[in-house]
Amino acid sequence: MHEAFPNIPMPVIICTTIAVVSIMNILGIKLVSSMNMLIISMQIVFIAVFLFLSFKTNFVLDTDALLAPITLTADQMPGLFAGAAVLCLAFLGFDAISTMAEETKDARSTLPKAIIYTVFIAGALFIIISYSAHLSYPLWQDFIPNTDIASLAVMEKVGGAMMASSFITAYVIGVFASAMTSQASIVRIFYAMGRDGVLPRSVFAYLHPKLNTPVYSIIFVAIASLLSLVLSLSMVASMISFGALIAFTFVNLSVIKHFYIDRKEALDGKKFITCLIMPSIGVILTLWLWTSLDKEAFTVGLCWLAAGAFYLTLLTHGFRRRPPAISDDETNMIIN
Fold it and tell me: Is residue 119 over pLDDT 80?
């Protein structure tokens, strides 16, 4: 938005976005869901137009040209792996679906299907759009001085100023959709933690008497979001990646401990593969991806991890008692 309207200060754009997103979530999840459906429909139309124009102007029956987007040279491999360490974890939005369990009918059956469908649909879209963008602008690094607006340059080449303007509109709409969903997801996590006593109940477990939404949690997340005024996008992406790698490493280790060490269920057969081999591969891959993160992300991530460990120590009185857990009755509660 700042690139399109440079006269509007960046802080104004950021604060306005946070305010609008927070108000939408305070008004309720049903409104957020309806807005997301409208936004997705508009984005699908834009994607279809982009793909049509891209292939219409750039498609040629030449093997080398068609294989160029998926062909790598040896000197490009380090950059690919470094990018993978950030992007494969920065695009984890689909797992936010799981935080909507309390507002989903037949969540046990519906949510796993929704997550799987989203992975395949979004994954296919990412591949197709990236492929067509590379066909349109194969040597972008030689022509785009500011890589933060590389997509805008691709749109201008594909469809001119009109396409670039449409892209800005679709992109901003997409940012709102992503922000609304992300805020709704983390707010539900905070609400559950407040309800279980992990965080102060009076703040994080409070529901508005009429709107029935966790207003204080939403306000807390909105205030925390103001860090975007001082943090760079690359830094935030690296922090997200660090946190996700921590989570995935321990999820895989927990599977091994629970099924292979504690319950002895993974000693042979199918469970040997699913409960030992596969999570072990997961641990190795996440540790490998860690090597591609920058030092700043490690520093901030380890400090944040240490702060969480310290808080957990206080919460469990020096690990002498179990931390609070969600009960079955609480899991069945519904937030409208």
Answer: yes
DSSP code, position 6: T
- The pTM (predicted TM-score) of the whole model is 0.64
Read off the pLDDT of residues 78-109 as tens digits, 9 standing for 90 and up.
Answer: 777 777 766 666 566 676 677 666 667 777 77
Q: For 13-68, give the DSSP string.
A: HHHHHHHHHHHHHHH-HHHHHHHHHHHHHHHHHHHHHHHHHHHHHH--S-HHHHHG
Of 212, 47, 217, whose CA–CA distance to 132 is shortest?
47
CA angle 98–226–164, rounded 5-degree value = 80
How large is the C-alpha radius of gyration of the chain?
A: 22
The helix (run of H) or strand (run of E) holding residue 287 is helix 278-290
User: In the block, which residue shows the tokens 């022509």?
Assistant: 143
Lookup result for tokens 């001085």 = 145
List Cα–Cα distances, 238 to 85, 146, 186, 232, 251, in angstroms.
9, 19, 18, 10, 20
Cα dihedral 62, 50, 132, 115, rounded to 10, equals -140
On the 0-12 / 13-18 / 19+ scale of CB atoms within 10 A, 51 is middle
Query: Is the distance from CB of 177 to CB of 35 less than 8 angstroms?
Result: yes
- In which residue are the tokens 């491999």 written? 77
Would you tell me how many other CB atoms lie within 10 Å of the CB of residue 27?
A: 13
**CA-to-CA distance for 54 and 134, rounded, in angstroms?**
10
